Amino acid sequence: MAAFEFPCRCGETLSVSEALVKPGGKVRCPRCKAVVDIPPEVIGEVQQERAERVAAEERKRAKAEQKARHRAQEQKRKEEERFRGQQEDEQTKRKERMVQVEYAKDELRVEKEAAPMERALARQKSYVGAAVLTFVLYCVFYLPGLIFNIIYLADAKKTARVAGQSPAGVGCLWALLVLGLLPLLVLLVVLGLISIGGEAAVGG
Ligand SMILES: [Zn+2]
Q1: What does pTM read for this prediction?
Q2: What does the pLDDT look like over 9-58, one tens digit per residue?
Q3: Percent helix, strand, coil in the chain (nearest 5)?
Q4: How far is the CA of 32 from the centre of ligand 1 (A)?
């Protein structure tokens, strides 16, 4: 701690530590034993130094406070930014989900609307004309009749699934198939018998 010096009337140099310097402060001279007032200029000097120190500390404290405040503001801003970012993300996700839900709903509605129409159309479908055409084909060209018969039956099966009921003319197509396959069956049996007969003839 700094010491302050000033002369006594007897010529001795008096020394006083800063802590003891205050208005009305006194020091005893070690030589002449007189009690000497600390001169006002010494008191003024010390007071000024103290004031400067206090001011410097005040400035330092204010600076630190400002720094802390800035840091807090920056952090708050960053947090707000992050929060806003999260909210935007969530909003985007929510929108995407909503679009997907809407899309799914649309698809379902289209399906629901299409299904009754499809079913109504399938229920109106008749295979009587197809059966007549198949019969004519059987009579004129046998094989195309058989092919058309099978194709029409496959188509009728699909229609029946959509309609939920057997369409008209399917019975006719089945009857034609049985009748159409009958000659083929007879032919196969005859051919088989001939072959057996032939083998028997060769064997005998
Ligand atoms: Zn003295």
Answers
A1: 0.42
A2: 999 999 999 888 999 999 999 999 999 999 999 999 999 999 999 999 99
A3: 75, 10, 15
A4: 4
On whether the CB atoms of residues 154 and 197 are closer than 8 A, the answer is no
Tell me the C-alpha distance between 141 and 146, whole Å. 9
* Centre of ligand 1 from the C-alpha of residue 149, in Å: 146
Token pair recorded at residue 66? 């400002």
Please give the distance, rounded to the nearest whole angstrom, from the Cα atom of residue 27 to the centre of ligand 1.
10
Compute, in angstroms, the gap from residue 48 CA to the centroid of ligand 1. Answer: 27
- Report how far residue 204's alpha carbon sits from residue 192's, in angstroms, rounded to the nearest whole number: 18
Assign 1 a pLDDT band (cuts: 50, 70, 90): low
Compute, in angstroms, the gap from residue 1 CA to the centroid of ligand 1: 24
Instruction: Round to whole Å and give the CA distance between 79 and 85.
Output: 10
- The more confident residue out of 163 and 35 is 35
The end-to-end CA distance of the chain, in Å, is 148
